[in-house]
Amino acid sequence: MKKISLTIISLITILFSYSQGITSIDIASERLIMSSDAKRTANAVGSPYINENFSPLRVKGYDNQLFTGRFNAYNGEFEVNIGTKIIALDKSKQYEVMFTQTNKIYRTYSYNTKSGISKKGFLTLVNETEKSALLKEEIIKYYELVPAATSYQQDKPAKFNREDDNYYLKIGDNITYFPTKKKDILKAFPKNAKAIKNYIKKNKLSTKEESDLIKIGDFISSL
């Protein structure tokens, strides 16, 4: 099946009306279907969302307004419920979104993926200091239905699957893909490989633990 593509309309401004008053926020082109191929994926097992429920959140710059929303990690869209409809924040713009119940923060960044593809989209803020920030790309992939090979077998249904997260280290304005294997970290920062290796060994850190990745990232930013 071919992927359904929707024509991108020019950016629009939608007015939000709340008890505090009326404010406005720039959003992406409004879409009849949030996902660009929602019909194709409609019957899939699993979910494209990190959390299926719409949860309370605030958007930086609109601090007096409380919205609800959810993050679609499959297509990178931040969906915001404004009461009468659901819109997608324009990820090509600068946004900071915080879920108020967990203090989890998403921001839009321009960055290069592990394979060198240039992207701009929402990354979660894992940790931030004056010098650096550890960022995380949450990934959900869609897998097509796999037909049964014989009449004695069943089709494997189409599904959404949560993949391993990708990490990025931001030092100043530079954002670098941050591997989660020790040997790959040393390759990514060859000039400081010996110091990094000694630091990991001395402090008995595991690159499989996010809390330890924070420490390693902080150490690298100090070199």
Written overview of the protein:
By secondary structure, the protein is an alpha+beta fold. Helix content is 15%, strand content 37%. The strands form three sheets. A ten-stranded antiparallel beta sheet has the order 6-5-4-3-7-8-9-10-13-14. It has a two-stranded antiparallel sheet with strand order 1-2. Strand 4 and strand 5 (77-81) form a beta hairpin. Helix 2 runs antiparallel to helix 3. The protein is globular and about 55 Å long. The termini are far apart. The model is unreliable at 1-24 and 29-33 (pLDDT under 50).
Order of helices and strands: EEHEEEEEEEEEEEEHHH
Strand fraction equals 35-45%
Mean pLDDT: 83
Secondary structure: helix percent: 10-25%
Label this structure with key terms:
single chain; 223 residues; alpha+beta; two-stranded antiparallel sheet; 14 strands; 15% helix; 37% strand; disordered N terminus
